[in-house]
Design a protein that fits this description.
By secondary structure, the chain is mostly helical. It has one domain (3-226). Helix content is 84%, strand content 0%. It has 9 helices and no strands. Helix 2 (24-44) runs parallel beside helix 6, helix 3 (49-72) packs antiparallel against helix 6 (95-124) and helix 8 runs antiparallel to helix 9. The longest helix has 31 residues, at 196-226. 41% of the residues are buried. The model has no long low-confidence stretch (mean pLDDT 87). It is a multi-pass membrane protein. Required for the export of heme to the periplasm for the biogenesis of c-type cytochromes. It comes from Simiduia curdlanivorans.
Length: 227
């Protein structure tokens, strides 16, 4: 990697972090949603600890997925509105690498906080002790997958004023495998079975997403900008 490209990536990463800090309310919404929904589950379904322990892995994963969806519409929206996206498209540096920096920041301000909150929410749902480490590990890998996959949908709909619902329809089928293996890994750990296979599959999905999603996002952004 050349020095100019390394500087460009560092500048892009720093810029995205600053923008995320200025738009704190946009990134706080998914975490608030995550916390509120999990808090209301015992009140709305059942306060029984044994019943909540059964629900906990799937419930936490489903709500984490939905919380991630809330932040996707804004991923490229501000860049489109202020013209930064056009500058990104005509940059002499590879667009997929610049997009990679943007997706990484998205995960840092959405997926990572959701992962760090998960032990507290697991405690609220009476998650057995055996499930905490698998929950954190699966969310750590899985939320990164969600950010990469979701970025493709966000790029495809960035030129649409109300693309939030369309994003969900586009990417939800691709979210399903991540949800299944993430929740199943936690459930198997609670039941005393090996869960490393599910984590390995999540890792493979993340590797595939890192290798392909930036190129798909770059192509989708070019298509959206021409539309």
């Amino acid at each position: 990697m050349s020095d100019s490209l390394a500087r460009a990536l560092a500048q892009q990463f720093s810029r995205e972090l600053k923008l995320a800090y200025r738009a704190r309310s946009d990134w706080a919404n998914p975490m608030i949603f995550f916390l509120l929904v999990i808090t209301m589950v015992p009140m709305g379904i059942s306060p029984d600890a044994k019943f909540l322990a059964i629900l906990a892995p799937g419930m936490i994963w489903v709500v984490a997925l939905l919380a991630t969806l809330l932040s996707l519409d804004a991923l490229f929206r501000a860049d489109m509105d202020d013209g930064s996206l056009d500058q990104l498209l005509i940059s002499p540096h590879p667009l997929p690498l610049l997009v990679l920096a943007k997706i990484a920041v998205h995960w840092l301000v959405t997926g990572l906080p959701l992962t760090l909150m998960s032990p507290l929410l697991g405690l609220m749902l009476s998650l057995p002790a055996e499930g905490y480490v698998p929950l954190i590990m699966s969310l750590l890998i899985g939320t990164a997958c969600l950010s990469f996959i979701g970025a493709i949908g966000a790029a495809l709909t960035v030129s649409l004023r109300k693309g939030g619902l369309l994003i969900s329809l586009i990417i939800m089928p691709f979210y399903v495998p991540v949800l299944i293996f993430g929740a199943n890994g936690v459930s198997r750990a609670i039941e005393g079975f090996a869960h490393t296979g599910q984590l390995a599959i999540l890792g493979a999905l993340l590797a595939l997403a890192v290798a392909t999603a930036p190129f798909a996002v770059a192509g989708a952004l070019r298509i959206s900008s021409e539309g």
